[in-house]
């Protein structure tokens, strides 16, 4: 294997990246004040003493909305490469594939809507 300037540049950039990541961590470890007690051990250090426990119960609806949002957001991200490739394509095959993808995405939205996923339920008091 022949060592070239390209290999030297890769090694230099690798070392620079490691230094760029480790120097702030090391500097904060050396410079940061070290004391315990007071408000440091509180769950939220905002200046207001907490009332009650730090453990709150969230409804599962928040997580359903987050998962559905992520699923559809990832599906929409698949459209960007198609939009970039589309002007360079010939024929109607990419358009047909895009319409099939959008049809499946639309059917899934209708399915979730009919299942009642998008309706926010009332809070159930226990």
TrEMBL record:
What InterPro entries has UniProt attached to this entry? NADH_UbQ/plastoQ_OxRdtase_su3, NDAH_ubi_oxred_su3_sf
Family as reported in the entry's similarity comment: Belongs to the complex I subunit 3 family.
What membrane topology does the UniProt entry give? Answer: Multi-pass membrane protein
Keyword list (alphabetical) reads: Membrane, NAD, Quinone, Transmembrane, Transmembrane helix, Transport
UniProt signal peptide:
none
Subcellular location per UniProt equals: Cell membrane; Membrane
The organism's place on the tree of life at top rank: Bacteria
**Which regions span the lipid bilayer?**
6-27, 62-86, 92-113
In the Enzyme Commission scheme, what number(s) does this protein have? Answer: 7.1.1.-
Report what the protein is called: NADH-quinone oxidoreductase subunit
Q: Which GO terms describe its cellular component?
A: NADH dehydrogenase complex; plasma membrane
Role of this protein:
NDH-1 shuttles electrons from NADH, via FMN and iron-sulfur (Fe-S) centers, to quinones in the respiratory chain.
Q: Which reaction does it catalyse?
A: a quinone + NADH + 5 H(+)(in) = a quinol + NAD(+) + 4 H(+)(out)
| Major location (coarse) | membrane
Q: Which GO terms describe its molecular function?
A: NADH dehydrogenase (ubiquinone) activity; quinone binding
């Amino acid at each position: 294997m022949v060592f070239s300037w390209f290999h030297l540049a890769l090694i230099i950039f690798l070392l620079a990246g490691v230094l760029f990541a480790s120097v702030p961590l090391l500097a904060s470890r050396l410079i940061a004040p070290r004391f315990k007690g007071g408000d440091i051990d509180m769950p939220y250090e905002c200046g207001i003493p907490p009332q009650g426990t730090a453990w709150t119960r969230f409804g599962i609806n928040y997580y359903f909305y987050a998962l559905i949002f992520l699923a559809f957001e990832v599906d929409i991200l698949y459209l960007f490469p198609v939009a970039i490739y589309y002007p360079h394509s010939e024929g109607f095959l990419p358009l047909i594939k895009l319409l099939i993808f959008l049809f499946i995405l639309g059917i899934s939205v209708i399915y979730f809507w009919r299942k009642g996923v998008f309706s926010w339920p009332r809070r159930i008091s226990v």
